Amino acid sequence: MLAKRILTASILAAGLIAAILLLPTGAFAGLVAFFVLLGAREWADLSGCSTAGMVGYVALVAALAAGVILAEPAPAAVAAVGAAWWLGVLGLVIAYPRGAGLWRHPAGRAAGLVALIPAWFSLVHLHGTTDGPWWVLALMFLIWGADTGAYFAGRALGRHRLAPSVSPGKTWEGAIGGLALALLAGTAVAMAAGLAIPTGFSLVAAVTVAASVVGDLGESLLKRAADRKDSGTLFPGHGGVLDRVDSLLAATPVFVLGLEVVA
């Protein structure tokens, strides 16, 4: 199983890095939108939609995403909406199991709109800025570093559970190890790319990593409500789209908003 996970992760990472660095922003937006819609289908399924409901939900996400692009809102405002939602998810994680039923309620389906669309818009916006592809790559290495560091530090040192009722495998030691590796990896990419790193970047990166953990825990709440281990079966050894992008959904608007603030 571990070998399958590593192989799948390597293929996905290589393809994503190539897409980030080689595709123009319009094509990148379309590619990301494709996976966002797959994620929307999974969210609808986990939140209790019927087959027809899942089709309608995906269509609604597509329509709203197109509407956001056409409306040309302030990127910071869209990112703030997304960041605020994930702050609310942190409250749900802390309060669990209170509020667990919300995920299978229409409110849970509405939450998917706020989770998916601001993240997609923020990622596309970031890609289209000056040196945008490299900033996106730095964000990805923050998330990958956090995930990898948390896994190995948690296995080696993990003693104190981070959120035992939501995700028993996560520990505070793993989270700290993930933060350390994430800061090293993200900063290394930014420096290697010659990016103009703003004062306060380390703080933005740290808060982004914290948000990525909340994203992971938030998806765990959604899956617990649906009594599922994975959000889907698209990626061998890794589950579905939401299983792969849960951290990214939360981290992206926080990262973009943070860069807007410290720029």
Can you summarize the main beta sheet? Answer: 2 strands, antiparallel
Query: What strand line-up does the widest sheet have?
Result: 1-2
Shape: globular
Strand content: under 5%
Terminal Cα span: 43 Å
Q: How many beta-strand elements? A: 2
- What does the average pLDDT come to? 93
Low-confidence stretches: none
Oligomer: single chain
Proportion of residues in helical segments: over 70%
Please explain how this structure is put together.
By secondary structure, the chain is mainly alpha-helical. The chain is 77% helix and 3% strand. The termini are far apart. It has helices at residues 2-22, 25-46, 51-71, 75-95, 106-127, 132-157, 172-192, 201-226, 241-262, and strands at 161-163, 167-171. Helix 2 runs antiparallel to helix 3 (51-71), helix 4 packs across helix 9 and helix 5 (106-127) crosses helix 9 (241-262). It is built from 9 helices and 2 strands; from the N terminus they run H-H-H-H-H-H-E-E-H-H-H. It is globular and about 50 Å long. It has a two-stranded antiparallel ribbon with strand order 1-2. A hairpin with a 3-residue loop joins strand 1 and strand 2 (167-171).
Question: Descriptors for this entry?
Answer:
globular; mainly alpha; single chain; 263 residues; 3% strand
Helix-strand blueprint:
Layout: H1 2-22, H2 25-46, H3 51-71, H4 75-95, H5 106-127, H6 132-157, E1 161-163, E2 167-171, H7 172-192, H8 201-226, H9 241-262
Give a brief outline of the structure.
By secondary structure, this protein is mostly helical.
